[in-house]
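[job 0412] stage=complex_fold ligand=FE2/S2 (inorganic) cluster status=START
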Amino acid sequence: MSTTTVESKHSAALDAAETGDAHLITVTLRVRRFNPEVSDQVVWVDYEMQMDPKERVLDALHKIKWELDGTLTFRRSCAHGICGSDAMRINGRNRLACKTLLKDINPEKPITVEPIKGLTVLKDLVVDMEPFFQAFRDVMPFLVTKGNEPTRERLQSAEDRARFDDTTKCILCAACTSSCPVFWNDGQYFGPAAIVNAHRFIFDSRDEAGEQRLEILNDRDGVWRCRTTFNCTDACPRGIEVTKAIQEVKRALLTRRF
Ligand code: SF4
Ligand code: FES
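[job 0412] stage=complex_fold status=DONE, emitting structure tokens
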């Protein structure tokens, strides 16, 4: 594995003199590069650039892509923490690049950026999300009701709604699942995100497929694989209490009350 360096053409002093951007600092992004069409070897490439410390890692990745090396490949869409497409390992921790300010991650040192773990890397920072989404689909992430069509909407008390409020916040970024050591060791495990999304419907008073979802998660690759390491809760950019949700599903399986 080797490391090469790509620098922006202007020096910091020259940039500052030309533009008055004295607040800019030199930032090095150390990015894990992999392109199976070129080589089966991984290389780490250092990209040096002038950045405002209040900018985000996503801004630095854009600068690389647009000004230094157009071959760098990563996913992003909304750029505002909503779509969940830019989860990556930044300085060894899963985060959304669009929600991570440079000033908060020690920009004086090289900032490492690599793909999330446990899913096959397709190119650079892009992983194959299909196993992750299949686990999500497997828990039936939609409301299931049998008959009794309401004439207007299905009513629910504020208290019942609060029961699953936390797990409605999931943006399917995979930061939780790809930070889970059980998932790293055995990609068959449903993973925290699928359980969070099952929780969202199991505890919805309007839904009638809770038992079915619990049986799906009672599988050998279901909730019982969780080792309560809290990595998932630490990684979640939405602040969801992922481990608590998993515990609640486990308890519902034991008591059949939800
Ligand atoms: S629970 Fe949090 S970390 Fe996991 S997929 Fe949803 S938003 Fe991302
Ligand atoms: S780009 Fe959409 S969440 Fe970061």
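The radius of gyration is 22 Å.
[job 0412] exit 0
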